[in-house]
Specification:
heterodimer, A: about 260 residues, alpha+beta, 10 helices, 11 strands, about 35% helix, about 30% strand, elongated, B: about 400 residues, alpha/beta, 8-stranded mixed beta sheet, 13 helices, about 20% strand, globular
């Protein structure tokens, strides 16, 4: 008990010194977890993320990355790694979450955007993308991961990403489970490689892609009208050249000068 | 900033050192010869300098251009544990298939000789779960020793020494074998020495570099992982001065819709200041860095650890994307090895529903490497020798 309190206290001090009060909620959440024997944290900000995941950092930087706190726990003799990514905004957090999840298991919806698998618990809420990784995939470790996730979710006051700004009529929960949000070529490359030729090297946008029946709907919100126009000109040129980028059966709806929806 | 970073910063500031890139002391390659970018919008590089150093009998693609040996064994992993005996046999079989030799010692001695300083270039970047496995590395070492190579001739290396340590490449686990990285940290967790310089700065060779017209600008927290900023990426002295031959042992991983495998493990593991190269020059770096003599002329063999790997989210994938490929891929030709590795990963991605087919851009770095005469990317010209042992 004394050792555990000492470990958590040291962790709290470490994180607070690192990032001020901003991420003290991680330590507050962990102070309620039973069975932690050791805890060690590291912090990475901006481009120093290269020091943690090398070239994988580019994807996070493309979405808009702020700070990562990695906490390595030993819990009842087993290793659990907690990664709390603070992204620039909830869209970015959901974006990273959307390209990271795969074949999620069911379970209680602790927050809007959750993915459980045997070895990993992921969620996004507010500007945070959180990944909790265990080594064994056991029921116990999955339960412990869920416990940690629940405590952290309760500490995050910001609301989860809302797709309403992309699709005014909202998006069904089932459909959102397969939705992908991208902000550039790396997101496309990692999340939906089949769309590489359609989107190319375009940037300056956020795009939420959902499946509607057999079609893929992509709602693109551009940072400027110029980038929207450039994208549409590329599309028009591609159709004229009959390239694979855009076939004649894709439709474009102009919602506003900065917002278009494409159906593939 | 955390305590370690604060101490690093104070040591740096106290010594009055600058963190910017320094001009090369001497240029073995002469002045930079920028090569106009072949693709629109791509920055210039000094790839033309690579050809100034003549090729020799060891130059890529090595002894067996276009030939790749693949051994698959479903018994290589049992209940998530790698079975070292099976891995040993797979590597041995792949060496015989590659060389056509009937004797394993002779097969190995086609590539290495007693007295040579041999480096094993592993990949430890994705943590314990997704790094070059110890079972593969120990098997390679065992077969080298059985072929007459002494442990004292061997070095296990990568760019980041502390990552090697983190995943278990330590003197305790590998007695008698040197373990070294370009980027280093001392026992107090500091990246800077008392002279105010990064330990890594002492490990780069300013006579050998890859120049690209992309500026690397890093803050003090990122610089320890880059060693220097600016437009020069310097080769590590580990490669240019301390080793005679390299055996490249990457792990089978995707990178988006392509692979991060033999060429990437060599290119990004051999030079400093790599952060700036990812966004605009990923393909070019994978191919062009390998065209320079320190890599081109020393890498004699590539053994891909495809026992466990990942099919999505790479190079630092999440666990749900891990899989057991149960495969060893071996070749002297890193381009052909990458091409075959790509096919294996693509097949898995298609089977998992992530893609329906390959994408042309996925092969770009291999095609560039082929144009630089580093090996064979054209699948129809690859001599694939595949063995399924179980």
């Amino acid at each position: 008990m004394h050792f555990r309190q000492t470990a958590i206290t040291a962790l709290l001090i470490s994180i607070t010194l690192t990032t001020g009060a901003q991420h003290a909620f991680i330590a507050r959440a962990l102070s309620e977890v039973q069975g932690i024997e050791e805890a060690h944290s590291r912090t990475f900000t901006d481009a120093s993320l290269y020091g943690y995941i090398n070239g994988g950092a580019e994807l996070y930087l493309e979405y808009g990355f702020d700070t990562l706190i990695v906490t390595e726990l030993v819990c009842q003799g087993r290793d659990i790694k907690l990664e709390v990514y603070r992204m620039k905004d909830p869209e970015a957090a959901f974006g990273i979450f959307s390209v990271s999840r795969f074949r999620c298991n069911g379970g209680v919806a602790l927050t809007e955007h959750v993915c459980r698998s045997a070895y990993q618990f992921q969620f996004s809420k507010g500007p945070y993308y959180v990944s909790i990784i265990n080594d064994t995939g056991s029921e116990d470790d999955q339960r412990k991961s869920g416990e940690i996730a629940s405590l952290i979710i309760n500490q995050i006051s910001e609301p989860p990403f809302d797709p309403g700004c992309f699709f005014a009529e909202g998006v069904d929960q089932d459909v959102m489970r397969g939705a992908v949000l991208v902000r550039g070529p790396l997101g496309i490359y990692n999340g939906i490689p089949s769309l590489i030729e359609k989107f190319g090297e375009a940037s300056g946008y956020s795009a939420l892609m959902i499946q509607k029946g057999q079609d893929t709907l992509a709602s693109l919100r551009f940072n400027t009208e110029e980038s929207a126009n450039a994208f549409l000109q590329h599309k028009t040129a591609s159709q004229a050249l009959k390239t694979k980028a855009f076939s004649s059966d894709s439709t474009v709806s102009i919602i506003s000068p900065n917002h278009i929806i494409i159906s593939f | 900033m955390n305590q370690v970073n604060r101490r690093n910063f104070l040591r740096l500031a106290g010594a009055g050192a600058a963190a910017a890139a320094a001009a090369p002391v001497a240029q073995a390659l002469g002045t930079v010869t920028p090569t106009p970018a072949t693709q629109q919008g791509k920055p210039d590089t000094n790839i033309a300098d690579a050809a100034k150093v003549p090729r020799n009998e060891h130059s890529m693609p090595g002894l067996f251009p276009g030939r790749v040996a693949v051994v698959k064994n479903s018994r290589a992993v049992n209940e998530n544990a790698i079975i070292e005996k099976e891995v040993y046999d797979m590597i041995a079989r792949s060496m015989l298939e590659l060389t056509g030799e009937k004797n394993l010692k002779k097969a190995w001695r086609r590539f290495v000789s007693p007295g040579e300083r041999i480096g094993l270039k592993v990949n430890p970047v994705a943590g314990k779960s997704l790094s070059t496995s110890h079972e593969v590395v120990r098997s390679v070492i065992a077969q080298l020793e059985e072929s007459g190579i002494k442990r004292s001739q061997l070095t296990i290396w990568d760019r980041r020494e502390f990552e090697l340590t983190d995943v278990g490449f330590t003197p305790d686990n590998y007695p008698g074998i040197r373990i070294v990285g370009t980027e280093q940290m001392d026992k107090d967790g500091l990246y800077y020495g008392k002279d105010g310089k990064l330990y890594g700065e002492h490990m780069i060779d300013r006579d050998w570099y890859y120049w690209a017209d992309v500026e690397g600008e890093y803050d003090e927290y990122t610089m320890p992982y880059m060693v220097n900023g600016g437009k020069y990426s310097y080769f590590t002295k580990i490669l240019t001065q301390e080793l005679d031959k390299i055996i490249n042992i990457p792990i089978l991983k995707n990178a988006g819709a392509t692979v991060t495998l033999a060429l990437k493990n060599l290119a990004y593991g051999s030079v400093s200041n790599t952060g700036r190269l990812h966004a605009k020059l990923w393909n070019e770096t994978c191919a062009q860095v390998c065209a320079f003599a320190p890599v081109r002329d020393k890498v004699v063999l590539n053994i891909v650890d495809g026992i466990k790997g990942c099919f999505n989210g790479g190079p630092g994938a999440n666990p749900q994307f891990f899989c057991d490929y149960n495969t060893i891929i071996t070749g002297s030709d890193p381009v052909a090895v990458d091409r075959i590795g790509y096919d294996i990963v693509l097949a898995k991605r298609i089977a998992e529903g992530l893609q329906k087919e390959g994408t042309p851009t996925a092969l770009e770095f291999m095609l560039q490497a082929e144009k630089l005469s580093l090996g064979v990317a054209d699948r129809s010209r690859i001599d694939l020798r595949e063995v399924i042992t179980s």
